[in-house]
Design goal:
Keywords: Membrane, Transmembrane, Transmembrane helix. The chain crosses the membrane at residues 24-41, 53-70, 100-116, 187-207. This is Conjugal transfer protein TraX. InterPro entries: TraX. It comes from Paenibacillus durus ATCC 35681. The structure is a single chain. The chain is globular. The N and C termini lie far apart (36 Å). It contains twelve helices and no strands. By secondary structure, the protein is mainly α. Helix 3 (32-46) runs parallel beside helix 5 and helix 7 (121-133) packs antiparallel against helix 8. Helix content is 77%, strand content 0%. The protein has one domain (1-219).
Length: 222
């Protein structure tokens, strides 16, 4: 599972940087993010210390930020910040006794995520919530509905391919259990995101002869 997530993310980012006209790379890359969302939820459920889990996410997000700006988006926040906010929402929801309280608590966070330059914006949190609270066919239907909404609202047509890992999670438990057993070392899993972005930024510099100028104004101005 982890290897599939890392490989498809790498393919996605290579296509984004070096082959922007070839959407085939981006289609393959749609597989990665649902796996990371699923892994986040599993980590939330089974970690021995949620505070250390949040700290690890924060450290990775901070380490990855400059490589992300140099390789992919000069003025945005990398996807680990999206996952970090999603984890904080999950922690908050665990403490609330009523569903309506959870909806009320999540709504302003969704608004903030949709108005700040976060990678995957509010879609990321919504998908994490789907993996946390939906099961079986409801998981697939909820993810499909989310993708349809974003396809019509934002034009995210290629995001429909992200349903593939969700289908495996929902309907292929034996295969998924097998994939989960094929784990990579923890340090590889946690370091791959900032590490591969740094390498891609260097390759981009060598390939194009320049790097984009980082612009963090959009992070602080809504």
């Amino acid at each position: 599972m982890q290897l599939i997530a890392m490989l498809t993310m790498l393919i996605d980012h290579i296509g984004y940087i070096f082959f922007p006209q070839d959407l085939g790379w981006r289609y393959i890359g749609r597989i990665a993010f649902p796996i990371y969302c699923y892994a986040l939820v599993q980590g939330h459920l089974y970690t021995s210390s949620k505070s250390r889990y949040v700290l690890r996410l924060l450290i990775i997000a901070l380490i990855a930020q400059i490589p992300y700006n140099l390789a992919l988006d000069p003025g945005g926040l990398n996807v680990v910040f999206t996952l970090l906010l999603s984890e904080l929402v999950l922690i908050a929801l665990d403490k609330l006794p009523k569903l309506w309280m959870g909806i009320a608590a999540a709504a302003p966070i969704l608004w903030v995520m949709d108005h700040y330059p976060l990678d995957y914006n509010a879609y990321g949190l919504l998908l994490v919530l789907i993996f946390r609270y939906a099961r079986s066919y409801r998981l697939v239907l909820a993810h499909l509905a989310l993708n349809v909404i974003y396809m019509f609202y934002y034009g995210w047509t290629i995001q429909m391919l992200s349903l593939l890992p969700t289908l495996v999670i929902a309907y292929g438990p034996e295969l998924w259990v097998y994939l989960q057993k094929r784990r990579v070392p923890r340090w590889v899993w946690w370091s791959f995101y900032p590490g591969h972005l740094a390498v891609l930024a260097i390759i981009r510099l060598l390939y194009y002869g320049e790097l984009p100028e980082m612009d963090w104004r959009s992070i602080f101005v809504m």
